[in-house]
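Much of what follows relies on a compact textual record of a protein's fold. An example makes this concrete, so a full record is given next.
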Amino acid sequence: MTPPGAEPLGATFPREARLVRKAEFDAVYRAGKRRSSSHFTVFFRANEQPQSRFGFSIKKTLGGAVVRNRIRRRLREMVRCHRLEIHAGWDIVIHPKSTVAKAPFAALTADLLRLLKSAPQSNK
């Protein structure tokens, strides 16, 4: 077992890598670009930071609290494991679709990474 604080870079999901305020989400929706796939809709907006920040929005229509929390945990794990492979300098909001609740984790990861890597390289 790895001692706390000894995780390799990228194996954590620190607060600096998250969108947490409503105003941050609203800015992405208002000024960002959108891409979709069969499992996700992803909103991108350039930020002036050295890393990308991620937010998740899981609608109540996807299921009860247990289902929504499971979806949220799966999304966080996908982003946590692969966030260093994604272009830096973006605020990204991920909206899962109803197919996410039953789809295999590997298929979801591949689909999400394809969408996230399709973000424009830079607006700077």
